[in-house]
Amino acid sequence: MTLTVLTPPDEEPVSLSKAKSYLRIGHDGEDELVISLIAGARAALETQAGLCLVSRTLRWSFAVWPRDLIARSGGRLPAGPVSELVSVRSLAGEVETDLTSRFLLDGQRLCLRPGSWLPAIETGARVEVDFVAGFGSAADVPEDLSLALLVMADAAYRRGSTDVVVSEAAAALITARREVRL
């Protein structure tokens, strides 16, 4: 299973000016560094939390139907929050079959519509699910996640490194957002 970004976000979840203010940088000499710290912190946070902060279109590809989808409980999409199901299609060589009408979104889960069935995936074929994930624009990102991003950028800046890691403080904020799976 792979996850590919089809349409990247239009903006970072935290502006350069907000990050510079948080880092207490009053000049423009380190703007490129701060921009890279924001991007690195966003990537680390999104990976750790399984979230997309700013909306983007993603493609989830697989060669075998997820077990939860086969069991009809719905397959959890690999990044969230999910706002739109764009398409579901099967690709077997040159043949593309649109399967979108068989599926619906139920929160973070891709579910079969009542009365629909999963077609077999031929050997060498794959299924691609395109969807939109993220909170919306930068202004829509929850404050706790923006703060976690700034904490991570600050820790890297103070270390004099462009390597952004999830600090304990940021991890606590992210953990509070993590979905509990029963």
Mean pLDDT: 89
Number of helices: 5
Strand content: 25-35%
Distance N to C terminus: 23 Å
Radius of gyration: 19 Å
Helix and strand run: EHHEHEEEEEEHH
InterPro entries: Phage_CHP
Protein name: PhiE125 gp8 family phage protein
List keywords for this structure.
alpha+beta; 182 residues; 32% helix; single chain; three-stranded antiparallel β-sheet; five-stranded antiparallel β-sheet; 25% strand; elongated
What does this structure look like?
By secondary structure, the chain is α+β, with helices and mostly antiparallel strands. Helices cover 32% and strands 25% of the residues. The protein is built from five helices and eight strands. A hairpin with a 2-residue loop joins strand 6 (103-106) and strand 7. Helix 4 runs antiparallel to helix 5 (168-177). The longest helix is centred in the first third of the chain and has 19 residues, at 31-49. The radius of gyration is 19 Å and the shape is elongated. The protein starts with a strand and ends in a 5-residue tail after the last helix. The mean pLDDT is 89.
Quick recap:
32% of the residues lie in helices and 25% in strands. It is of the alpha+beta class and 182 residues long. The chain has five helices and eight strands, in the order βααβαββββββαα.
Topology of helices and strands:
Layout: E1 2-7, H1 16-23, H2 31-49, E2 56-62, H3 67-70, E3 75-76, E4 82-92, E5 95-98, E6 103-106, E7 109-112, E8 126-133, H4 143-159, H5 168-177
Protein name: PhiE125 gp8 family phage protein
Organism: Henriciella marina
InterPro entries: Phage_CHP
